[in-house]
Design goal:
7-stranded mixed β-sheet; globular; alpha/beta; disordered N terminus
Amino acid sequence: MRKAEGPAAACTGRAGAHESGTGTPPSRQVPVRKDGAGRVRLAVCVALVALLGAVPATAQERREVPDTVRHYGEPASEADRAAIDTLLEEYRSTWARHDARAWIALHAADTEWINAYARLFQGAEPLAEFAEQRLFPAFDASVSSRESAAMRLISVRYLGDDAAVLHLYTDSPRGSSRNAGEDLRRTHLHLVLAKTGAAWRIVHTAIMDAR
């Protein structure tokens, strides 16, 4: 039996309740106060519990993704929307053909990049060297092509006039899945874009695996 946690625990006074020989025994639990403050606390708790019960659960399992792409906010112009869409297509294309230099050109000079194994690069040049000498040579281009073709958007978030966040995922054979019974590795990518002058560039990339 799970312990009462969070708001429910605060409302019931059962946080850390006695279970399996641990926590505070029932005989030592503090009763809810019955004075004015206690009644206010009780009313707030009842309202909170009712609210929590009315909110639908939106969390997914580790490999689940939404059926539709979500868009948050609006770009400053249709030209910005088109430029961001073009950058995404170029990202897919350069990744698929192992064109390290064209791929790096999509990034800002001071870009940050961290992969699912916490390998971190700061700056486009160190990242380009890694892509050219280790990242792309480690796999046949057909692997990256398949990975690129499977890239799907989960969400696009426009932040003001000069920033946006793209959330992508893909299923690929780039290394085995860490989950038993799964043939393909599911990877999520967060690309943070910034506009400098008329150009949009990737300023931060965070990569994570579904494990």
